[in-house]
Amino acid sequence: MKKFTLLALFALLAAGYRADAQIQDGNVLIGSDFANISLGLNRPHVFNFNITPEVAWFVADNLAVGGYVNLGIETATGAPTTTTYGVGGLARYYTGTDVAVLRHGRFFGEATLGVGGTDVSDGGGNTNGLNFSIGPGFAYFVTPNIGLEVLLKYEGLGGFGSQSYQSTVALNFGLQIYLPGKKTAAKVKGDMK
Q1: Is 76 exposed, middle or buried (0-12, 13-18, 19+ CB in 10 A)?
Q2: Domain total of the chain
Q3: pTM attached to this predicted model
Q4: CATH assignment of the domain containing 157
Q5: Which DSSP letter does residue 125 get?
Q6: Residue 144 is part of which domain span?
Q7: Of 29, 39, 54, 64, most Cβ neighbours within 10 A?
Q8: Which tens digit of pLDDT belongs to each residue from 48-84?
């Protein structure tokens, strides 16, 4: 019964908001994308994990600019370890209004540009240099300040090493927290008086 009451309360709270306030000028986005998290149970016991923390500021309604850090590792029994890394800037643009089917969701596009690399421990397949990505995504706001995301991106890495260019298409899942900036906080204080 407690679970049902909690779910009913959550549903009532979620029904009363729209996905506009989170992406207003002055607000802050903090979160991370997670990709390719896996652990092989059979030989060669492959472990793979990639995380990309992000922070961005909304410089205008629907437009956020910020930075990211990318860290990843893939290892297996008896095989070389692959490490990926990167740091750079990002830009996001959220489209128009709430999606009609999912009232609390927004489509967005994300582009990144920075420096990064992929290094294989046995010396094969290394690339270090310019790192970029671009792709569409969808954010579903489970509460007014928390968004669950899915993002499909083309990622490229060009530069120096045993391979001059590497590219992938990645499906990432993320969790973002949208915090009010000074402008939004001042607006809320003014409305409460």
Answers
A1: middle
A2: 1
A3: 0.76
A4: 2.40.160.20
A5: S
A6: 2-192
A7: 64
A8: 889 999 999 999 989 999 999 999 998 888 888 999 9
